[in-house]
Specification:
Two copies of one chain form a homodimer. Chain A is α/β, with parallel strands linked by helices and about 450 residues long. Chain A has 14 helices and 20 strands.
Chain lengths: ~450, ~450
């Protein structure tokens, strides 16, 4: 049997030793990593290296980059309102091609390998076409293939519903599939190979001193994904959390022949263990989102049910709402503010002006689409007081005005003027000493 | 229930009447007919027309033209010796995309439609990847879909083997699949829509007076397919014969809105009925094949087993042999001649010179790759004497020397010098009065 190995928590010498034991892992490769025949061959070399070292590997590759868009583009040319079942029938072929190509590439390296579609691998989903949810994965078939010395390649992003229809999990579903496969076979680790080399304390394009995190808690990763980090799809993080699958984000653009010992501890591990030895950072990272727009309704009569009367029509117009803040106002009225995606700002403003303002007797509707959200995320916030205060002080020191605040157990978000975004991120990065992570 | 309707055998007034009864038909569309989104929409319009007229239609489309080659090209880039199982996993996606697109196109015309992969439609095959044979089709699911007012779209060219692997039927397998589906649901007719508008008495590019045949017998069609006619894949003709599926070859490039009455009697019907009223042509068509090369071994000792000693090594070298003729020679020796595909001429010559000639004590090996085969095909030959003689006379009148002759019950083939091919085809077309067919 393989043995669980929480790499980054071990000291160096233990690390090398533990790696000599056989691991059961899932490798997931994104569309960019599968972007050309050359890259597919390079993925095959990386997988072959793990296989030859005695590890058991299941691979979940995405479609070649651009392929899913090409396929859905064809469908859109036929009809703008295509049947979601047929879209899934079509879009699922992108992954089917890439698993076949990767199996061939592995075989030509002398590795026994075989490709499986979602339904062949026993991945069952509900019938919500184009955004199906995995209901069950029977890992027996994959485990049997592994016992036979095979490297099974499983399509990402898809499964089969109770009526035998092909379903897809929606964009980013390959991450979720990989984590779900890892859960089904009780893998020691799910390795998500991607075009970034780690989760960073913040976006290095904004803060050059951003540092890669060796380890991040599941809860923090979940908040980061919710805040719009594109590295991992939020549902894959949910799945990892639900089934406690240790999941690692690492780069597929390192040389395929770097030693496994090095590769296996690279990137960022999303962990479920609260290790004593792990020095718990109070704040792990700074997230930000430029896609926000703020809307305020002033002079709203302060009565029960008024929040619903404002938010209801906006939701009916298919506009998602992010932050919501209601302040106590004066003379029996209140101000009600919320944020929406910047693309939906005009739509939301129209709904409020035409359907809501008069109906509830509000004074005015004002909006601003030049705002952004900056958040600090850290599991240490649970046990440390004064973190929010430190955040507000850091921003005040830079004369950055805070327009809205929301908090959760391990996250504090503020809305600030768009033009201060970089400044705010850098100030917070420095204030929480994230430039010293890993030093 | 639908009612069998042998259209071309009816007179005009009966024809219109019988078409008013509901028919159960399979439509098959080739890659060219599915070559672009515009063409797919045009196919949908044609199918919708049949559906709206009250007929039950199952559609079997090919992959979009060029798509199967593109997919196999990708696999070839990865490895020249790709695993056939993986090739099928990859190549089968071409049809999966086109069934989805066609279902969407039908839905956007207001027709209830749904796509099915080979395995979803219950098409079982053996495990001979890339050239699997259909072992069973359970038509229940398709019949149920039809009863629900649906137009089921089934992938051509593929099925599932007993272990749940995706298989493909090999090139041209969509024709076979269509005929097999028609057999499984006991369709009244299988309509093969293609880029030619009928089976002709001979190739119109060689003989401008070639005439389209309204009807051809299964046996004749089988011989034509064996002789290299590209219109129908030989295995689809075999299948049609085995299950007695009336199969019609017709054009998909007529206007989609021509009346069903006209469309349903267009093209050529391959029939199993020997109708009294059908004026039986003695010879139905002239076939020819330019890909032949002739090899003769002279002075072969006339002993039992010598044919095997010659043909055996050639077959071992994977060279297919077509015509074989052995003449009585003089002084206890014989001449042995056969034909091979022109591309394999050099390979076969090498085998004979290096492995066979010395071993059997033959005098010499001579070859000629400037030959072609011309054949007359006709079910009437069974009951008419002197047909071969008439053929030989027609060729003699044109001073065309016959190099080899082979015959079957309904076919006579001759090998002649390449340069006489057009002349021979035209002389035979005239001699058997094929220019007067349908007049």
């Amino acid at each position: 049997m393989s043995e669980r190995c929480s790499l980054v928590l071990c000291c160096g010498s233990l690390l090398t030793l533990s790696l000599l034991t056989q691991m059961l892992v899932v490798h997931k490769y994104g569309g960019t990593s599968m972007g050309s025949i050359e890259r597919i061959k390079s993925v095959a070399e990386r997988v072959a290296k793990w296989h030859r070292a005695g590890h058991k590997v299941v691979v979940v590759p995405s479609a070649m980059s651009g392929e899913t868009n090409r396929l859905l583009g064809l469908a859109k040319e036929v009809s703008a309102n295509a049947d979601p079942r047929e879209l899934d029938q079509i879009a699922s072929t992108g992954e089917q091609v890439s698993v076949g190509l990767l199996a061939i590439a592995l075989q030509s390296l002398g590795v026994k390998s075989r490709s499986y579609t979602g339904w062949q691998a026993g991945i069952k989903t509900d019938s919500a076409f184009t955004k199906a949810r995995i209901s069950e994965i029977n890992g027996d078939m994959l485990l049997k293939a592994l016992d036979g010395g095979e490297v099974p390649i499983v399509t990402g992003f898809q499964g089969i519903d109770p009526d035998g229809n092909i379903t897809t999990l929606g964009r980013g579903g390959s991450d979720t599939q990989a984590v779900a496969v890892a859960a089904a076979i009780k893998a020691d680790e799910c390795l998500i190979y991607t075009d970034v080399d780690a989760i960073y304390t913040t976006d290095p394009r904004v803060e050059p001193d951003a540092k890669p995190l060796k380890v991040i808690s599941f809860e923090e990763m979940f908040e980061l994904a919710s805040l719009g980090s594109k590295v991992l799809q939020i549902r894959s993080v949910e799945f990892a959390g639900k089934y406690k699958v240790p999941t690692r984000v690492l780069s597929s653009f390192t040389d395929a022949d770097i030693p496994i010992e090095v590769e296996a501890k690279s990137g960022t591990l999303i962990t479920f263990e609260e290790d004593e030895k792990m020095e718990q950072a109070v704040v792990s990272g700074i997230a930000f989102n430029r896609d926000e727009a703020k809307i305020t309704i002033r002079g709203v009569p302060d009565q029960p049910g008024v929040a619903y009367k404002i938010i209801g029509p906006v939701g009916d117009a298919n506009v998602d709402i992010d932050m919501i803040v209601q302040n106590i106002g004066e003379k029996g009225t209140t101000d009600f503010s919320f944020t929406v995606h910047r693309n939906e700002f005009r739509k939301a403003m129209d709904v409020l002006n035409n359907q809501v303002k008069g109906a509830i007797g509000a004074k005015e509707v004002v909006g601003d689409d030049k705002v952004c959200k900056v958040s600090i995320v850290g599991i240490g916030m649970r046990s440390h007081v004064g973190i929010a205060a430190k955040m507000f002080k850091a921003l005040a020191d830079e004369n950055i005005n805070i327009q809205m605040i929301t908090t959760s157990e391990i996250k504090t978000s503020v809305l600030v003027d768009d033009k201060y975004m970089e400044l705010a991120v850098r100030a917070l990065h420095r204030a929480f000493e994230l430039d010293k992570v890993g030093a």
